[in-house]
Amino acid sequence: MVTLFVTGLEFYAYHGVPAEERTIGHRYVVDLELNVKSSAETSDDVTDSVDYADVAQTVVEVATKKQYKTVERLAQVMGETLLDRYSRIQGLSIRLAKRLPPAPIIAEELGVELTLER
Predict the structure, then answer these.
(1) Is 65 a catalytic residue?
(2) Catalytic-labelled residue, pool 37, 65, 69, 98
(3) In which band, very low, low, confident or very high, does the pLDDT at 102 lie, cut at 50, 70 and 90?
């Protein structure tokens, strides 16, 4: 088992409780840790693992395809999609943050961390 990671994956999407947030949109950032049943560390063959770039594209695709009110739901759908699409992923952790959130506070990020296992 190996742990693959993607950190600092940014995208622009349209999620939030108020309708204005779903119209104007925001920058988001995702960090992923994937527990992968891999043999690429001995075979040196990417097909014996999970392609990081493909995983990143999948996450952005999920985030930009449909709108959600909560980052919790968005993170859950991202995780479920990765588990469904990549049978080698045995478990994963997602950290999803909304950058510079529109709130009555000043914060760099607000978000959620979620862990899923097969």
Answers:
(1) no
(2) 98
(3) confident
